[in-house]
Structure formats: structure tokens, C-alpha cells
Design brief:
Helix content is 26%, strand content 31%. The chain contains 6 helices and 7 strands, in the order ααβαβαββαβαββ. The relative contact order is 0.17. The structure holds S-adenosylmethionine.
Length: 194
């Protein structure tokens, strides 16, 4: 499904970075792991700030576009084709992990998030934005499977070894390519590894 979506020359979510990520880049340090990076808009932006970024995604087509986007701007990003359902990030390694619209089934999240937490160095930060469960009845973006949408209460349980820096569920205008466009409910979450 994702390779099909990414097959066109267009960028499904545009080439501009996610605005919540942009607002919080001051918290990020290298190396950065970007979960479900897609076509590279966020990784390329972070590379433009001098950060060392690894973008992981199951879509080889998406990551090939990500590499092209980086090269077109004279930037370097690292990419890895992998299924997050079985992904094993190295422990105590990352300064930051970003998860932008990385909509995954709860079973995959429940396995992945403890590994993400362990992959952070002490003081490392996770920045996450996802469509919220309240978005299910909207047609402005996000999966149509409620299990892949987040709520804050659930998320707060997921990172017990992190201190919460920021957490909210809000309705906000999103303009990110063809597939994320319009007023939408999102969860925004930032936490720091103790
Ligand atoms: C809505 S797109 C978001 C892409 C990117 N984060 C962005 O904000 O532009 C969701 C991405 O999740 C990836 N994805 C979904 N399930 C995955 C899995 N099990 N393992 C790795 N990537 C996955 C898809 O390939 C797709 O690129």
C-alpha cells in the first residue's frame, strides 16, 4: 500500500517538515532515529540543521525518494528499510527519536515503544505527533482504523522511564501534502529519558 502511494513523482505529505517537529528542534541532539520516515521531509529538514538522522521505514520506494530529496539539497541522511513490527534499535544510542504520523497497530506499538525508550541515551528525547482517536470520524487525514490512532492516556503509560515534557491532544489545521489536509485531532507528546 505505501509503495503504491509513494510511486508518483509527487510527495504524498509534501516536502516541508511537520510543524510540531519544527517548533521543537531545539530539543534534538544526534544521532536522531526517525520512525516511519516515509519520503524524507522530516529527515531532510533535520539534516539541514546539521543533525545526523537515520530514517527507518518499510517502504523502499519512500526511502529512495527521501534519499533523492536529500541529494537535491546537497544533504546526507541515512535510511534503512525495515518493518517496525520487528525492529531492534540499538540500546542507549540515540540522542533523539522522532515519530511523526507513524501510525501503527497497538500490538506493534506495544512492542516497539519499550525498545524506543531503551534506544535513547539518558537525557535523550522523543518527539511524537500522531492523529488522535478523535480523528476517526474526520476525512482530513489519518488511518481509518481506530487501533492505529492514539490517545494521551495510553501514550503516557508507554514510556515509564521518561519524564514528560509536553503532552496534549488538540484540534489543529494540518497542511501536509494531499493526504493530510484540514482541521484534525492530533496527539503531541515530548518526553526525556531519565
Ligand atoms: C502517514 S506516513 C508518514 C510518513 C512520515 N513520517 C511523514 O510524516 O511524512 C506513515 C509511514 O509509516 C510507514 N509504516 C507503516 N507501517 C510500518 C511498519 N510496520 N514498519 C515501518 N514503516 C511503517 C509507511 O511506510 C509510511 O511511510
Amino acid at each position: 500500500m505505501w509503495n503504491e502511494r509513494y510511486a508518483s513523482n509527487e510527495f504524498a505529505y509534501g516536502t516541508e517538515p511537520n510543524s510540531f517537529l519544527v517548533q521543537n528542534t531545539n530539543l534534538l541532539t544526534s544521532p536522531v532515529l526517525s520512525l516511519a520516515e516515509g519520503e524524507g521531509r522530516n529527515a531532510v529538514f533535520l539534516a539541514s540543521l546539521g543533525l545526523d538522522v537515520l530514517g527507518v521505514d518499510q517502504s523502499d520506494v519512500g526511502l529512495a525518494k527521501a534519499q533523492k530529496l536529500a541529494a537535491s539539497r546537497g544533504l546526507v541522511i541515512r535510511t534503512e528499510v525495515a518493518d517496525l513490527a520487528s525492529y531492534e534499535p540499538p540500546e542507549n544510542h540515540y540522542g533523539s527519536v522522532i515519530s511523526i504520523s507513524a501510525h501503527l497497530p497497538s500490538q506493534v506499538r506495544d512492542r516497539l515503544y519499550p525498545r524506543v525508550e531503551r534506544s535513547l541515551k539518558p537525557g535523550g528525547v522523543i518527539i511524537l505527533e500522531s492523529y488522535a482517536k478523535a480523528q476517526i470520524s474526520r476525512n482530513t487525514g489519518g488511518p481509518k482504523d481506530i487501533d492505529m490512532l492514539l490517545d494521551l492516556a495510553d501514550l503516557e503509560q508507554q514510556f515509564p522511564n521518561c519524564e514528560r515534557i509536553f503532552a496534549r491532544e488538540i484540534e489543529r489545521e494540518i497542511i501536509e501534502g494531499t493526504f493530510h489536509t484540514g482541521l484534525a485531532w492530533v496527539v503531541q507528546f515530548i518526553a526525556r529519558k531519565k
